[in-house]
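Consortium newsletter contribution from the modelling node. Members have asked for a concrete example of what our holo predictions look like. Here is one, prepared for the GN1 complex that several groups have been discussing at recent meetings.
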Amino acid sequence: MQHIISQFQLEGTPVSCERYGNGHINETYLVNTDAPHAYILQKVNRHVFPDIPGLMRNISAVTSYLRQQTPDPRRVLTLVPTRDKDMYFVDADGETWRVYEFVTDSLCLDRPENEHDLQQSGLAFGTFQNQLADFPAHTLVEIIPHFHDTPARYSQLKEAIRKDEAGRVKEAESEIDQYLAYEKYADCLTSLLRKGDLPLRVTHNDTKLNNVLLDAATRTPLCVIDLDTVMPGLAANDFGDSIRFGAATAPEDEQDMDKVGMSMRLFEAYAQGFLSACGRRLTPLEKETLPMGALLMTLECGSRFLADFLNGDVYFHRARPGQNLQRARTHIKMVQDMEGKLGRMRDLIETIERRTAAR
Ligand code: ADP
Ligand code: GN1
Ligand code: MG
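And here is the predicted structure:
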């Protein structure tokens, strides 16, 4: 590790390097130094991201653009260059490493402690969308094509079932049936996009609560992180993925299924934060589709967990056997809960809109 760290232009001498955070994709380390500076070192997952040069160009372009809009270094991710002035280092095994400034005095939450935390993450992702509204989208590499194309994700699930690579189809028969029964929703938003009824925007595409840093003192938004999937996308997907993760009443892999569902209070808090930051930019139809975005992102992510379980756990990091199947179970339960709450979610969005307009 020493050899890798020494490739980057760090201030101070590194004194420790430890695994850090709960991301499912990259290998993340916190590097402390003897200077008042810490760093995030990441091995970028090359199986998930085949075009790493394109990915790093995207991140560099987006962070430079955001930096023009805010002078505070803690509010935008800062890439640390290598001694050769590159954005990343490729080691002898062909693995790619990058370094970010560690954002100090920040909080990264896996669960909101209260509604305020989730409202603030809505504010962060809404502001992010707002700040990138005029970013030249055509300059971005589409880093994972069809990333939030739910019908394409269903095709991948069906292929995983057909191939039964890890011999696990038998074990997951009931979950497979449940997911296939919900395929009826898969094309809801993609069909509106095809017809030109919904606009493509520059979106984050991975809007989990733990991809936002809050200020530790004020618990207000500091910085949106994990910019690997910034690409053209739908506003409803960014909204929806935050609800999937942040408005859940239990963690992604909760074992006690009685605890699993979506909290309307947390939904309202997130919607309030998100719409206060970017509501003016969204079309009426985009706002109408936000609840469906929540259902679809939960369905899609759950189908990805299930496909990964069937493929032998090759995509998402997992801490124990069966974790991806458990994640798939919680997600289909959330979908069922959300389906029953679609009307109430729509009403809440309208109420928030009226409240905002009256101000
Ligand atoms: P993954 O794609 O694996 O989710 P992330 O880029 O989200 O990787 O990083 C994983 C975790 O590392 C984050 O959830 C957060 O806790 C922490 N992290 C990443 N970048 C920073 C940063 N610049 N400052 C502080 N913490 C960070
Ligand atoms: C992954 O990288 P991370 O942990 O923030 C995944 C998301 C999933 C999420 C499920 C590039 O996000 O798409 O929604 O896990 N990222 C990628 O928790 O596939
Ligand atoms: Mg992450």
